[in-house]
């Protein structure tokens, strides 16, 4: 028996949200985590993936979920999956704003040792929190929400659930490996600061 129109909308919502939060968003994180170890030209690839690609996917997935609530006759944000979906959208929007703020507005006097501002650490922690919460959210959707909203006439296959497990393991493994490059990144940043300081000193006239 083919999927109903409601089930098909739910399937599209699930695919978009899964790709947005567990493929596109982590890809943007990995671009920052890995590229900054070797080059200073990492920001725009990171921003393009996490804003121009991930953003429309997240907004579209959220809009579809909102429409499904209307179609089902259930109140909006009445169960954990819907509430967490709203929380993820808000967290993502805050993260985008924070990333732009960090890039364009600087407060040199507030820098921590090593040259970073407090909001840089907040940006990193919030990004990981979004991916962690999205991992829970997609798990809940596959294991529980689909059955609840559709009546489970077409249960989620175990291949989909196994794929979820594989993707989550890959995400956190790649991030852990990326953290292993952190000492190299810190050495590179220290060298860059030293080179910048030397250039500034070269510009000072000797009297």
TrEMBL record:
Residues 1-181 form the Cytochrome b561 domain. It is found in: Membrane. It comes from the Eukaryota. Its main location: membrane. Pfam families: Cytochrom_B561. PROSITE patterns: CYTOCHROME_B561 (PS50939). The chain crosses the membrane at residues 12-35, 47-66, 86-105, 121-143, 163-182. Keywords: Electron transport, Membrane, Transmembrane, Transmembrane helix, Transport. One of its GO terms (cellular component) is membrane. Gene3D superfamilies: 1.20.120.1770. PANTHER family: CYTOCHROME B561 DOMAIN-CONTAINING PROTEIN, DEHYDROGENASE, PUTATIVE (AFU_ORTHOLOGUE AFUA_8G05805)-RELATED. This is Cytochrome b561 domain-containing protein. It comes from Mycena metata.
């Amino acid at each position: 028996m083919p999927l109903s129109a409601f089930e098909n909308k739910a399937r599209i919502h699930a695919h978009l949200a899964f790709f947005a939060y567990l493929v596109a968003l982590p890809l943007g994180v990995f671009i920052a985590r890995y590229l900054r170890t070797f080059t200073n030209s990492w920001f725009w690839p990171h921003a393009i993936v996490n804003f121009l690609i991930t953003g429309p996917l997240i907004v579209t997935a959220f809009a579809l979920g909102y429409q499904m609530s209307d179609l089902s006759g259930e109140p909006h944000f009445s169960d954990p999956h819907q509430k967490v979906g709203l929380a993820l959208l808000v967290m993502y929007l805050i993260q985008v704003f924070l990333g732009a703020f960090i890039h364009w507005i600087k407060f040199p006097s507030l820098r921590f040792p090593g040259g970073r501002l407090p909001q840089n650490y907040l940006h990193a922690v919030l990004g990981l929190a979004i991916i962690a919460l999205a991992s829970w959210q997609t798990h809940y959707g596959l294991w529980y929400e689909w059955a609840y909203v559709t009546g489970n006439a077409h249960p989620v296959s175990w291949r989909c659930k196994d794929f979820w497990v594989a993707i989550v393991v890959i995400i956190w493994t790649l991030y852990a490996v990326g953290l292993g490059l952190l000492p190299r990144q810190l050495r590179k940043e220290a060298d860059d600061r030293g080179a910048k300081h030397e250039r500034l000193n070269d510009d000072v006239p000797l009297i």
